[in-house]
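Protocol step 4 of 5: obtain the predicted structure for the target chain.
Materials: sequence only (see below). No template structures provided, no constraints applied. The aim of this step is simply to have a reference model before the mutagenesis design in step 5. Sequence pasted as it appears in the construct record:
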Amino acid sequence: MTIRSFELLQPHSLPEAVELLQKHGDDARAIGGGTTLVILMKQRSLYYPYLVDLQTIPGLNEIKNDGGGVTIGALTTHRTIELSPVIRQSFPALAEAFSHIGNVRVRQTASIGGNLAHADYRLDPPPPLLVLGAQVLAFGPKGARTIALKDFFRGLYENVLDPGEILTEVKIPAMPADGKAVYLRYSTLSANDWPCVNVAAFLRKENNRCKELRLALGGVAVTPLLVSGLEFADDQTLDAGVIEKILNAVDEQISPSSDLRGSEWYKRQMARLFTTKAIAQLNQMIPAS
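Step 4 output (structure tokens):
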């Protein structure tokens, strides 16, 4: 199918882009890589008479390491993040996640900002970004603001951005020296498909005991989920009993729905299995002290 005609507006600054979005209201949408938006418009699922092209705004596709963490511009492509020496050295689990998105052609075009703003619960990047404590920066009619990623997703295809507001950057704090993170995904259809379940885990240990554990899952709730209430594992050895309590906490917080990728029961079992695998991998990665 072909796309209905629209006008492509090309601002040269964020204030100009915001002004255009405000001027045209519900008839306008910001577009970055466009890999999802263009498909939806071709399918006639969505239509906007005006698209505000963010590619004409300079400075939104850079990866910067300032010592206290890494900032990724919203227009940075998945492929750039996947191959970035900065990301691979600082956050290898994140590079791993980006390497699984779609195929190389998609990754060469799609942007991190568009991925997050799309707010699909099945996407690869949100779980590792959640366990890494990422924040997003947005710019809108009221100026700039910072939003913790855990507070960014509101529902399926819904985020907390206000009308006229644009996601501009993703900030990831520096990884603690004693911390490690992993990312695992499981697809029941094809390697290029959305995962049935994906799990990211972050662990710090001291004296062979858990110092801090973070878990995030995708595909098993209406939004990407950062698991809460894991403090009981602090100062504990991650033995079978503690891991069972962790798995029970995960099971209580997820709400998978049955679809062609698996039944609710199956997704719960896979969430338990891959959470267990993620914790086991982290235990192996962090040497005994």
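Step 4 remarks: The CA atoms of residues 50 and 100 lie 32 Å apart. The chain is about 30% helix and 25% strand.
Proceed to step 5.
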